[in-house]
Amino acid sequence: MGTSWADAVENSPTGPPGNAGIAALKSAYVPPHLRNRPPASSVAAPPSGNDGFANARPTGGSQWPASRPDYGRRGYGGGGRGSGGWGGRDREVNPFGKDDAAAADTEPAFNEQENTGINFDAYEDIAVETSGQNIPPPVTTFAEIDLGDALNLNIKRCKYVKPTPVQRYTIPISLAGRDLMACAQTGSGKTAAFCFPIISGIMRGHIANRPQGTRTVFPLALILSPTRELSVQIHEEARKFSYQTGVRVVVTYGGAPMHQQLRELERGVDILVATPGRLVDLLERAKVSLKMIRYLALDEADRMLDMGFEPQIRKIVEEADMPRPGERQTMLFSATFPKEIQSFHSNRSQVGRVGSSTGLIVQRVEFVREADKRSHLMDLLHAQRDSGIQGKQALTLVFVETKKGADALEHWLCLNEFPATTIHGDRTQQEREFALRSFKSGRTPILVATDVAARGLDIPHVSHVINFDLPNDIDDYVHRIGRTGRAGKSGLATAFFNEKNMSMAKGLGELMKEANQEVPEWLTRFAGRPSYGGAKGRHGGGRFGGRDFRRDSSSNRGGSGHDYYGGGGGGGYGNYGGGMGPGVSSAWD
Ligand SMILES: Nc1ncnc2c1ncn2[C@@H]1O[C@H](COP(=O)(O)OP(=O)(O)OP(=O)(O)O)[C@@H](O)[C@H]1O
C-alpha cells in the first residue's frame, strides 16, 4: 500500500493539528513515484466491509422502537442465498450511529427538523417543467407521499424537512410506476429522489418469490453509477433510507476484493448498487441474475450512456436476463443531459428546461498562464488560510487534467506545507478511499483530483472548487463545480483559463451568464471569436438545462443516439418528471 500525506495523517495517532502536526508528518511523506511499493513496515489495517468506510461507521443495533411492517413477509425473512432482506442471523447495523440516539429522544416533526442549507429555499425559485401525459402532480411535503412508516422515519432521521424540487416532482411519478428521465442541479437531492420510490416499492410490492437453493442472487433493484466512490456513497445513503424497512442494500465495485462483496451478496440483496464493470464480471460468473429486477436507476445517466460505458451497459441491459422495458421501471438521473441524448429521445417526448449550474455557487474565471498556475494557486490558498477558512477546516478541491499532474501538484503542495492528497485512477482503491476519508474528515483539507471525483460525490464543507486545469467539456465543468454549493449551501468555484481552453470560452461564458455570474469582458471577447465558439464536449455540446434541444426543430431527432437499447420506445420524459405508464416501453431502452 502506498503512503501519502493523507495516509500518514490517517494513521497518525494525533492527526495534523496545526504546524506541529504537519512538521511531524513531513518525514512520512512519500512522493508519488515511490508509492505502491511494498510497505517497509506494517500499516493500519485496510478499511473493512464492502464500502471501505466501515471503520468509521458506528456499530450496534437500533435504539428505535422497531417499525418493520414488512419484516417477516415473504421475501424478507429468508436471508439465505438468492433471497433478499435481512436474515434472522444478521443484525442490521444502525447507519445513523450516535445521531440516532439523539434523534430518538426528540422524534421531531418534519417541520422542526433541519437539514437545510442557508439558501435551501432558493430551490423554490427553480422553474420546473414536466412533460408526458397524465403526470401525477408534484407534492410539497413528504407527509403527502405515502412512502411507508419505516421510510418516513428514516427521512426524519436524515433531518430532511421537505422534499427538494426534484424529489417533489419525480417521487410521485416513480411511485405511479412510470419511467422517467430527470435533470436537476448538482447537489439538489437526486439520490433520495430515486432511492425513496425504489425502497417504498420493494417494501410494498407483490414480488414473486425469488429462486432459492442457488448461489446466484436475484436483486429486485439495480442502481448503476459510473465511479466506485459514488457507488459507495449511494450505498451509504440507501442504507440509511432503508434502515429497518427490511430492504437490504449491497454495493459491488471494482478494485475491492471480490470475495467480501460476494459474501455480502450471499447474505441477501434487494437493492444492488454497482459500477458497470464489476457487475458484468458478476453476471459472467453467474453470481448475480437480473431476472427479478423491477427497478433500474442510472445515476449520472448521461455518463452511463456515454461511449465509454456502452459495452458494459449493453451487456447489463440487453444481453443479461433483465426484464424488458415495461416489465421494469427505468429511471435516468443527472445534472446534465447533452444534446445527443435529448435528440435521441425527442421523437416521442419533450424535455423541459431546468436551471443547470446552481446559483448557489459563485463562479470566478481568471486568466492564468500555464507557467503561473502554481503560484496563482498558492495565492488562493494563502488567502483562504489568512481569512481563516482553512482554520475552520473548509475543504478545497483542485481539479487537474492528468493523473501525473495530480501527483505532481500534490507533491508540490505538501512541500509547501499545504496538506494535500490525491484521488485518481492510478491509485489503488484503498488509497483512493483513504484519501477521500482524510479529505472528508478535514485532516487533509486539499484534495487534488482528476475527473474521477467530478461527479456525484457529496462532501460536506467543500467551500472551494478550483479548476486548475479546465475540462474540455462544459458538462464536466458543471459536475466539477457542483462538488460545492450543495443542498442549499453556498460555494465558490475558481477556474484558471488560458489559451489552451479557448474552445470552452463560449460555453463557459453562457453558463456563467445563465447563473447570473459576472463574466469577464476578456472571456466574452474570446467567446465571440468564430473559431472559439464551440465549447463542444464529447457529446458535441449542449447541456440539458442550457438549451432544450428537443424543442429545436433543427436538432437531429432520433439521430446519433444510443439506439442499442432496443429502438427508442415512447413515453413522456420530463426534466423533473415526465414519464410513462407501466407497460409502455421506455424511450431510453
Ligand atoms: N429533502 C432534503 N432536505 C435536505 N437535504 C437533502 C434533501 N435531499 C437530499 N438532501 C441532501 O442534499 C445533499 C445532496 O444530495 P445528492 O447527493 O443526492 O445530490 P445530487 O442531486 O445527486 O447531486 P449530484 O448531481 O452532484 O450527484 C446530500 O447531502 C443530501 O443528504
From TrEMBL:
Residues 88-101, 545-554 have a biased composition (Basic and acidic residues). Residues 38-48 have a biased composition (Low complexity). Residues 1-101, 533-564 are annotated as: Disordered. Its EC number is 3.6.4.13. Residues 376-527 form the Helicase C-terminal domain. It is an enzyme of class 3 (hydrolase). The keyword Nucleotide-binding applies. It catalyses: ATP + H2O = ADP + phosphate + H(+). Residues 140-168 form the DEAD-box RNA helicase Q domain. Residues 171-355 form the Helicase ATP-binding domain. GO terms for molecular function: ATP binding; hydrolase activity; RNA binding; RNA helicase activity. Residues 74-87 have a biased composition (Gly residues). A motif (Q motif) lies at residues 140-168. Keywords: ATP-binding, Helicase, Hydrolase, Nucleotide-binding, RNA-binding. The keyword Mitochondrion does not apply. Belongs to the DEAD box helicase family. DDX3/DED1 subfamily. This is RNA helicase.
